[in-house]
Design a protein that fits this description.
The structure is a single chain. Helix content is 36%, strand content 23%. The protein has 467 residues and is an alpha/beta fold. The protein has 3 domains: 2-37 and 99-143 and 260-330, FAD/NAD(P)-binding domain (3-Layer(bba) Sandwich); 159-257, FAD/NAD(P)-binding domain, CATH 3.50.50; 341-456, FAD/NAD-linked reductase, C-terminal dimerisation domain (Enolase-like, domain 1), CATH 3.30.390. Strand 4 (115-119) and strand 5 (122-125) form a beta hairpin. The longest helix is centred in the N-terminal third of the chain and has 18 residues, at 46-63. The mean pLDDT is 95.
Length: 467
């Protein structure tokens, strides 16, 4: 029996951040991972997909150069080997910080093995038992594959195969219209695949504000993607998918139908850890039903984002080692889908806000078609949309456009420091920038107040007195 302050099961984002944070505070840490360190984000998720999207963006820029008066005589030729070389190099560079050697230099014991609970706060791995003051479950998630006749033998891809096979298929049928499906649809369409996207629901990106998720269909169709909504897959085979009574042929099938926690073989009952359909049951401070056992990242299924996993991991270090009760407010977590233009949101959608606060909710917009920087760049599809209560408190923010992820960050900071919509309008933004759209949308708050209400009446009375 060996002992540790913190035993971490899983070497993805949550596990690595928690291990490094705890070791930096002087804790004795054992990090157990059966595969390569870095997890899904590095090997099959964020890094390779964003690198693939960058290559796709370059291909589109060459094809569109003519509209800016730039002539490309030889046209566009996508070199698949070159594309995947770029993807692998991005993974190599990003993975340098996650190497076992670096972890060991930081004082973390790295165990390359599967792990299971052998009792309360006891973990068995590599033929030994580790008793820890606290245990963190950070084993991530995987694609939830629907049970559909013929799918198992169809040779389908998930995102794992899509970035591992190093192939740009002639045609691709993507099942699932969430962020993963939408991003792959745009990437492969720009790189030369004929893409069909099937979504079982009424709209793509169902967690986004309805106004923006409706716009994304037009964005994808402009890239040549064929989109079918209310098209639930009912059968599949090699080279075809059946949905809503129609059969769609494609060289490859990509399943992007949601995620589920990876908890196989952990023997959670031995530690007293309960699970539900989303994964490990945790409270707001990431404590499980077992004393001294925590879960972070995709394992509990609340918000499956890399930045959330990192934030939760830091909270676990504080809570597990020092008895604090840090958590995460889901309404302060930004989320971005990395299409081009990007889609980002924070807080409540307009529909959610009206459901919670009624018709007193105020909405302020600024369209990209009225933004000078977007006009100069020829990127005029999209908007910034701010949702607020009558007092100007920001309930939600939604962006569709270039750099939407960065625009959402500005609103996240504003909410974090207690700023209101009117305060965003008072911040001087450089011209011409995409960030101006946030200020312009916020400016609608003051225009609304000055055109009516007490402030407007006082202003008109004062100006009238001076005439």
């Amino acid at each position: 029996m060996s002992r540790a302050d913190l035993a971490v099961i899983g070497g993805g984002t949550a596990g690595l951040v928690a291990s490094v944070g705890a070791a930096g505070l002087g804790a004795q840490v054992v990090l157990i991972e059966r595969e390569e360190l870095g997890g899904e984000c590095l090997h099959t998720g964020c890094v390779p997909t964003k690198a693939l999207l960058a290559a796709a963006r370059a291909a589109r820029a060459v094809r569109d150069a003519d509209r800016f008066g730039v002539r490309v005589p030889s046209g566009t030729r996508v070199d698949a080997a070159g594309v995947w070389s770029h993807v692998r190099e991005a993974m190599r560079q990003a993975g340098e910080a996650d190497s076992p050697e670096r972890m060991r230099r930081l004082g973390i014991e790295v165990v390359r093995a599967s792990a299971r609970f052998s009792g309360p706060r006891r973990v068995a791995a590599a033929g030994r038992e580790i008793e820890a003051r606290a245990v963190l479950i950070a084993t991530g998630s995987h694609t939830r594959v629907p049970s559909v006749p013929g799918l198992a033998s169809s040779g389908y891809w998930t995102h794992v195969e899509a970035v591992a096979v190093e192939e740009i298929p002639s045609s691709l049928c993507i099942v699932g219209g969430g962020p993963v499906g939408v991003e792959f649809a745009m990437a492969f369409a720009r790189l030369g695949s004929r893409v069909t996207l099937l979504q079982s629901g009424r709209r793509l990106l169902p967690r986004e504000d309805a106004e923006l998720s409706t716009l994304i269909i037009g964005v994808l169709e402009a890239e040549g993607v064929t989109v079918h909504t209310q098209a639930r897959m009912t059968a599949a085979g090699r080279g075809w998918v059946e949905a809503a009574g129609q059969r769609y042929a494609a060289a490859r099938i990509l399943i992007a139908t949601g995620r589920e926690a990876t908890l196989t073989d952990l023997e959670l009952p031995a530690a007293g850890v309960q699970v539900d359909r989303d994964g490990v049951v945790v409270d707001r401070t990431l404590r499980t039903t077992a004393t001294g056992v925590f879960a972070a990242g995709d394992t509990h299924g609340h918000l499956r984002f890399t930045h959330v996993a990192a934030h939760e991991a830091r909270a676990v270090v504080s809570n597990a080692l020092f008895g604090m009760r840090r958590g995460i407010d889901p309404e302060r977590v930004p989320a971005v889908t990395y299409t081009d233009p990007e889609v980002g949101h924070l807080g409540l959608s307009e529909a959610e806000a009206r459901q919670r606060h009624g018709d007193r909710v105020r909405v302020y917009r600024h369209a990209a078609s009225h933004l000078d920087r977007a006009i100069c760049d020829g990127e005029t599809v999209g908007m910034v949309k701010l949702v607020a209560d009558p007092a100007g408190r920001i309930l939600g923010a939604h962006c569709l456009g270039p750099r939407a992820g960065e625009l959402i960050a500005e609103v996240a900071v504003a909410i974090g420091v207690g700023a209101r919509v009117g305060d965003l309008a008072q911040v001087v933004h450089a011209y011409p920038t995409y960030a101006e759209a946030v200020a312009q949308a916020a400016g609608e708050y003051w225009r609304e107040r000055l055109s009516g209400g007490t402030l407007g009446r006082v202003a008109r009375w004062w100006l009238g007195r001076r005439r």
